[in-house]
Amino acid sequence: MIRTLLVALVGGSIVSIAAYSGARALNPDLLNMLECTVSGCARAPTARAIPDARENISLAREIDRYFAPLVASNNFYGTVYVTRGGEVLAEAGYGFASIELDVPNTGASVLPIASVSKPFTATAIMLLQQRGLVDLKAPLSKILPDYPNGDRLSLHHLLLHTSGIPDINVQPAYVELSHAHRTPAELVAAFRDLPLLFEPGARFQYSNSNYNLLALVIERVSGMSYGDFVRREILEPLDLRNTGHPDRADTIIPKLAAGYSPVGRAELARAPWIDWTVKTGNGSLYSTGADLSKWARGFSKSDLLSRQTLELATTPQLQNIGIDSMRGDLSYVWSIGRLLDRRKVWFAGRSPGFSAAISYFPEDDLAIVVLSNTYSLVTTQAADAIAAMVFGAPYARQEISDAPLPVESVRRWVGTYQFGERAPVPRMKMRVAEEHGRLTLEPDFAQMAPSALLPVADGTFIVRSYWLELKFDAEPNAAAKALTLFGARAERVE
User: Fold this and answer.
1) Could you report the per-residue pLDDT of 81-91, keeping only the tens digit for each?
2) Which uninterrupted H or E stretch holds 69?
């Protein structure tokens, strides 16, 4: 095990201590490169490839270079796993699995996978459909007779986020719900009596409640708990030994990483504790890069689903979804898009302290998994960048700066902005504040912490807490009139 500590300097001040550990495809000389980040040295890295895979040395080095500034600035800890045709091209761990215990990540670290759990839930529904136990288009009331509006809702609506059911994650009671063990029935009880936001099928609006409700459907139809059904019907047939659903908060999960949240401009804090059963169906699973790579390939290459069901599961049902974690078309199980003129089947998400992205390119049998134990969607951009590395295409390198900007320029963006009804949190306001030439985003929603805005270009910033791009809409040299974030537009109101 190779490990070092790095003191990162920003603006002449010590702001963080990071650690790195490499596994198999990653190299000890990344440590030198990280040290060069703060000392200015020019030692060239010499990557170690996976044994007997010399052709992958260049890829390993390129992945190292991409992640070095992210690790050094406390914007990524986690794992990377890349396979093609079942052959491992790269496997690595970055940063700490536990800062408190001085334990580095390795390629075998286990991490919660947030909304990347949803394709497993959707696949469970497809298995029930394949066996003739459910009908995707039939009224939900046939399965749950007492569910409000069950005659207007269907599994089709739930799978595609077109139900109009409000998102449990933004309800006032959610924080309290997350502090104790919950069953799917208890979770559904928290939102079942809320009025629908729109007529089912009228439009797309992402809601985690849909997948809590699907978990309840799985339990009622199968007679098994959600965790047992997923394990017996999906994980065991595909030999996913390090993936699971934590039915109990006191379960010991070997090699499980701790989760961290970005705070301030370059620091990390321990993520709030939650009982992961609060995310049953929509984000409760944990896994590894190796298991998720096997899952991406096994979904279409195994006999888990029949040819007919597989086609149904992967045929786009909605086109041009605009939110950052689901861009492209949406099938019952996966997001479907194109990258570098290739078909990309993918999914991404984040939960407190963690984020995850999985991409599969069927034509090339290429699987890319990026998991992080920091609460930031760096993972999605990183997976696309790694795909570009593999295919020899250009990609945007990470250039992270938090240098102060001219005050007269920055003040153009200062103000309060409000989203509309179709935003992830309807009518939410966000205040953009300035101090000494640096900007901070301050949401008026209790479950969203303030975040540093890192400049990318004039009027374009990275929201550090989410690693999403925020763009201001403004005429040259004029104050901004709106901003765009989360795929939604917020108008300036103050």
Assistant:
1) 999 999 999 99
2) helix 57-72
